[in-house]
Design a protein that fits this description.
Strands 1, 2, 3, 6, 7 and 8 form a six-stranded mixed beta sheet that branches. The chain has four helices and eight strands, in the order E-E-H-E-E-E-H-E-H-E-E-H. It has one domain. About 30% of the residues lie in helices and about 25% in strands.
Length: about 180
């Protein structure tokens, strides 16, 4: 998609009369959430500002497993992190932004916290074993997490894929 400052590769682009009018960025965090959570957040704001300042509509999807590994520089799992409601503070603040005033705020964001099938955390101790475990399942069935909540405003949809899609489709049809 063309942005105000640069072009940006976007996961989903919506075209109207062969022109890009909207995009949806998708991020799926799989490790080291605590170490990188500010980077994910700042990158989301920056790419959103670039696209929205270029007069395009932009939406985000952020998928977070409620429990994920923390790797050291060699790919060894040093601990397991659990996403909690306390981790959601910056997203709650973002959800209450006025999207017309703040171009860094996605028009809608789906914050989807999922529960992956449990693994033997004692035996899964490297990034390679972690990846092989989940890829070896064939089909991965995740559940919506019940452990995350918060007082979210209009800009974020928490754990409701169908509701997010409905709002995005309605918004894009109004363009």
């Amino acid at each position: 998609m063309s942005g105000r400052y640069m072009e940006k590769r976007v996961d989903i682009v919506v075209l109207k009369d062969e022109k890009d009018i909207a995009g949806i960025g998708v991020k799926f965090v799989m490790s080291n959430y605590s170490q990188n959570s500010n980077n994910y957040f700042e990158n989301m704001l920056g790419e959103t500002a670039n696209i929205r300042a270029g007069k395009k509509k932009y939406f985000q999807v952020l998928l977070l497993p409620e429990r994920l590994p923390y790797y050291d520089e060699k790919g060894k799992i040093t601990k397991w992190e659990t996403i909690t409601s306390n981790n959601m503070g910056k997203y709650i603040a973002l959800s209450k932004d006025d999207i017309e005033m703040y171009l860094h705020t996605p028009i809608k964001t789906l914050l989807f916290v999922i529960k992956l099938p449990a693994c033997d955390e004692g035996r899964i101790n490297t990034s390679i074993k972690y990846k092989k475990y989940y890829l070896g399942m064939g089909s991965l069935v995740a559940q919506v997490s019940n452990n995350t909540s918060g007082d979210f405003g209009e800009a974020i949809v928490l754990n409701n894929y169908e509701g997010f899609v409905e709002k995005v489709v309605h918004y894009i049809k109004s363009i």
